[in-house]
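Quick one, T. Sequence first:
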Amino acid sequence: MRTNVLFLLAKALRQYLAGGDCRFVFRRTHESALSPLDSAHLYLHVPFCSSECPYCPYNKIPFQPTVADQYVEALHAEIRLVRARVGPLRAPSLYVGGGTPMLLGHRFAEVIDCVRNAFDLDGPVAVEVTPADFSEKQVEYLQAAGATMVSVGVQSFQEATLQTIGRLYPGPVARRALQQLAQAGFDTVNADLMFAVPGQTQAQLSDDLEQAVACGASQVTTYPLFTFPYSTAARHRRQRSLRLPSLPVRYRQYRHIWQHFHEHDFAPASVWSFRKGRAAPYSSVTRKVYVGLGAGAATCIPGHYSFNTFDVPAYMAQLGRQRLPVALHMNTTRRLEDWYWLYWQMYQTRIDKNALRKRFKSPGPSPYAVLELCKLMHWIQEDEAEYRMTEAGAFWIHLAQNYLLLGSIDRLWQRAMAEPFPQSVAI
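Structure tokens:
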């Protein structure tokens, strides 16, 4: 009941900030709104996994070599079609997620080369890696593709925690993958770790944080367990009678994480992530303007937000007809985009005052009123140049993400995974 009330309050706040003319409804479309762009980040999705992790909510299917080869050909076709729409845009970054991108093997570099030939890729190439499928050969594939950042989905080094979340590899496998990637010369090596896992103790969490640093991670991203109802996580929890930790327990663990990295000279890169020294931050979610490639990938450009079909056969069939695989779109307003921008600045823990003044030109609620409220709550600190999120503020921003974003993502993805081309989805 409390969760439903919070969700309804979050929806009301979202509508107030975005304005009454903004409709949070994705509608079916087979036509892309892409047009010439000067610059946009790129995201590329590879949906194949050798085994399914119960707590993973992302778009994925079992790996089959023949299907993967067909998918690569479809990616080539989509890249060509997008290039024809947007032109030779400058791409400040390319993030490749999944699934398990490196299951493409030697063809992974082929796909990245296709992106480079189509666009002016002028920034990092960041790739997700899974310990269970990792091998030294994958380091060669990553280097051949020109990858500069890697993120290892460690989740935990503890046998008990790995079993709880359904990971099929032991802790030493995760350590070895992280160590080998840290020694391979990439600009940034991020280690993903979970907290707020049922049964996880603070001592186990501390050991995970210490091992990630000792293995050479230049960034560590710690995020709480998310249980999307459409994933197998809910069923997994019911079968094993697991209960998620309470909010106070989550907050205590989060405070411990924040203090641990402060003591080890890791600075916040986002509400979840902490980076060492001058390591470039690894984050695939803070881009404001981006074009998505692959089944289920999203595109967010001024005035428009869309998703490709999540269904891999439907995705490949559309591209076989030389049609872009767009399934759903929503029109966006400048006012909504302004608040979206501010949210992601807060998520990254810093808000540049000059950028804020230049950004907010549309009528509606003032961002400064929101920031003053955050100051009163001791969620942010202010100096002449910027606002900075405090430890408490960062924690509450992650809760805002739960109620403002993840609930909407849940409804959208649930329908998109059930139907290749839904008629409409209200979020």
